[in-house]
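re: ur question from earlier - yeah i can do the single chain one, its not a big deal. heres the input i used so u can compare w yours
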Amino acid sequence: MKIGILTHPLTNNYGCILQNYALHLVLREMGHEPITMDYTMSMPYKTIFTSFGSRILKRIKGIHLPLRGWPTQKEQDIINQNTREFVKGHIAITKTVAIRNLDVFCNAGFDAIIVGSDQVWRGDRKYIEKFFLSDFQNMDIHKIAYAASFGVDWWSFSKKKTIECASLLKKFKGISVREDSALNLCKKHFGVDAEWVLDPTFLINREVYEQLVRAKYPQISSCKKMMVYVLDKSNGKKNIVSQVSKSLQLTPNEVMAKEKFSKVGSKGLSDCIFPSVEEWLKGIMEADFVVTDSFHGTVFSIIFNKPFLTMTNNSRGNSRLISLLGSLRLMDRLVGEDEVNIENVIKSSINYEETNALLSSWKNDSIRFIEKGLQ
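and the output i got, formated as C-alpha cells:
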C-alpha cells in the first residue's frame, strides 16, 4: 500500500520528527510505502499585526525586542537546516505545499492515510478539520488515526468544529489515541470508540536510534553529563536543574538552539539554528541523568533506560505526561516546576525490567492496531 501520513510540519521539533521516522520504519517493515505530506503553516496576518503592535509598546517601555519576531521562509530554512537534513535523508516526503492546499494530495494515489501522531487534534489550531481528513472525505481509501493527541484533557473544540469533525471521524476505519484521557473525549464529544496505543517512537528498537547516532558520531563520550531538555524555561525549572546538577555532580548539557528568533531577531539568526536530530539523541544516550519538561524528552529517557526527572509543563499540557508515566508506573518521576524537595527522585532508581516488560506487551498491541486498520 502507498500510505500518506499527515502529522505536524517536520521542521525543528525533535519528537515530532522522530515519531514520524519511527512510523515510517514500522510501515516499511510491513511492506508498505509510506510518504509524509510536507506542508508549511504561515503566520496569520492578525497574529502578525498583534505581535508587531505589542513589540512597539514594549520598546516604548524600554524592553528591547526586535520589531519582527517571526522568521521569513529563508530564515526558517537556515534555522531548520540540520533537522531538515535528517528529514530529507530518512523520511519520504511529498513536495512542500501550504496547508490550505493539502487537497492536491487527493491525486497522489494513496491507498490509505494515517493521521498522527502528536498533538494533531489540538482544537485551538487553525485548519483543524484538515487533521480529520476533510480534504479526503469522499475518497474510498483506508483512513486511520494512530496515536492522535488532543494535547489536553479538556474539550477545546467549538460546537461547530465538534459537529464537523465528528462527522469526518466516523468515516475512519480505525481510531487510536496517545493519551488515556482522549478515550473519553472521543466517546463523549465525537461519539466514537478509540484504542489507546503507544507513541510511534516506542515501536522500534532502541538499537535503531543508537545506530543513527553512531553513524554520525562514532565516538560516544564517557564523561559524566546531565542532559537538559527544557522547552519552556522558568526560574522554578532552573532551580531544579541546578539541584540535580549539584546533587549528582553532573555537568548540564543542553542540546537546543541557543536563542529563540522571537527574542533576538535576524541579527542573532546564527544562534537560532537547531542542532541535528542525531546530536539530540546523542545527548540522551550519553547522559547519566535527564531533566526535561518535554513529552518526547521523557519518552527517549525511557527508551534509553536513563534515570530521569520530568517537570510539569502547564502551557503545553500535562495529560500526555501523566498518561505515559502513569501507565508505566513511573509517576514518581513527575514533579511540579516549583517543587522544593526532589532529592528522593534524584536518588531513587527505576525498575526498567518492569518498564520494558510493560512496553513490550503494549508495543505488540499497538502494531496489531496498525495491521488491522490496513487490512
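The chain has a mean pLDDT of 92. not sure if urs matches, ping me
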